[in-house]
Amino acid sequence: MRTVSDGRRRRLLSAALACAALAGFGLAGEAHAQRAEPCIGASWELTGAFAHQAQQIRYGATAAIEEINEKGGVLGQRLRLVAYDDQGEPARAVDNARRIGERDNCIAMLGGFRTPNAIALREPLHEMELPWVGTISAGTAVIEFPTNKWMFRVSMKDRWVAGFLLDRAREASKSGKVGMVYEATAWGQGGLADAERAAAERGVTLAAKETYNMGDADMSAQLIRLRDAGVDAIVLYGNDREVANLLRSMDRLGYRPAIFAAWGIGARLAELAGPLAEGVRVAGTFSWLGELPDRAKGVLARMQALFPEIRTPADLLHPSGTANAYDAVHIIAEAIRIAGRFDRGAVREAMYKVNMTGLVADYRPAFEPRPDRHDAVTPQAYRLFAYHNGQLLPVEQTPHRLAARAN
């Protein structure tokens, strides 16, 4: 029987360990630079109270993907949308993101309506190195946090929205007393902080600040305090259901300040509140009503062909969110083209090099590598809309452009 000398044994062991190390390094490097799939994932509230908001995002995203695929896809690959239901719950959103990033291995993820869900995704997205592009959720903290590398947004941002709404409310106020009403959620509380900051920057003080809980039906007590403080214009952060209840409470009290709302409310408010919604003004980025540019006409026609329930533009209940989602998908596709491969890290870096014209804005560039510019839509693109005759129209097409409502 042949034996191996100690020296030879040591040399063989060293060679084996070196090979193992090289193999391990190769596997680790391959895993880190693993080719992602040509899918865009999403965690949306597909069922529940805000399912209609998720559908608005789906309309725009699907139209963009169809348009891209008709032209040959991206880098020769057809894009596809993979959407999971989180039922509005942050924990489910995290589970869905893990599924999208680890099992489906998608190149990127689209955000939805709920700010608390978006905030819950910050850590898992960082761990998976998965680019995420928000489309509606406007909470400042979604994007502006010190360690953010992977979260981008094609939407409004509450830090900027608060100043936009406060300026409009001050223009409409006859008494000079502007108040704040907000829902008791992370989004509403963040909106309050942003509004207080905006007021301090302008050297003014909010005359009163009132909050309510999700599901509240009667808000008379809060409104009486606002009325007694002399408030005749309010900045509002709320969603359709509760804002409809707020309007009913106002009607019972005979108190109607001018309302300037963040876009937690959409066209559905007119369904829930009826004529009481008349004159409520809302910040947004886009309207499908009225005369449209040729590109927007084509996108609308495509969405109507894909989704027969869109009979008229009025059936787009969150018009801004639909347009934002359309632009967001095109920005992701352009970043993939610039990157030249389906690699998440390369796509993230390419986000800063995207220059394109969308429905909502000119993105030149779409993003910059600093905390406040992971938001593609800047205040210059913000617009004001108003409910008139049951429709949410550009405010200049209504009687409510500068009109202040008397108490």
Report on this structure:
- There is one protein chain.
- 44% of the residues lie in helices and 15% in strands.
- The protein is globular, with a radius of gyration of 25 Å.
- The protein has 407 residues and is of the alpha/beta class.
- The protein folds into two domains: 179 residues, Response regulator (Rossmann fold, 3-Layer(aba) Sandwich); 141 residues, Rossmann fold (3-Layer(aba) Sandwich), CATH 3.40.50.2300.
- A seven-stranded mixed β-sheet has the order 7-6-8-9-10-13-14, sandwiched between helices. It has a five-stranded parallel β-sheet with strand order 2-1-3-4-5, with helices on both faces. It has a two-stranded antiparallel sheet with strand order 11-12.
- Helix 2 packs across helix 12.
CATH architecture title of the largest domain: 3-Layer(aba) Sandwich
Mean pLDDT: 90
How many strands, what sense, and barrel or not for the largest sheet?
Answer: 7 strands, mixed
Shape: globular
| Name given to the CATH homologous superfamily of the largest domain | Response regulator
H/I helix tally? 14
The whole-angstrom Rg is 25 Å
Strand residues, percent: 15-25%
Under CATH, the topology of the largest domain can be stated as Rossmann fold
Q: Structural class, from secondary structure content?
A: alpha/beta
Q: Which CATH class of the largest domain is shown?
A: Alpha Beta
Strands, count: 14
**Order of strands across the widest beta sheet?**
7-6-8-9-10-13-14
